[in-house]
């Protein structure tokens, strides 16, 4: 039969172990959150880079349409 003191000590020991386990879980959750945030930031940067490059490509295409000569004249040659 256990005494009240032994029961108290056992409960305190269990509480310490639970606190350690909780601290480990909190650290794992924090690490996972950081990893996901970094992954999301990287993905956003990649998408933005693709978007900017697409905009630049579209802009350069628009600038060349309808121009045939060195001075930008032409493109509609022979049409009146």
Quickly list its features.
mainly alpha; 1 helix; rod-shaped
What would you say this structure looks like, in words?
With 80 residues, the protein is mainly α. It has a domain at 13-55. The chain is 76% helix and 0% strand. The mean pLDDT is 86.
Strand content: under 5%
End-to-end CA span? 111 Å
The biggest beta sheet, please? Answer: none
Q: How many strand units?
A: 0
Radius of gyration: 34 Å
Q: Order of helices and strands, N to C? A: H
The residue ranges in which pLDDT falls below 50 over 5 or more consecutive positions are none
* Overall SS class: mainly alpha
What layout of secondary structure does this protein have?
Elements: H1 4-64
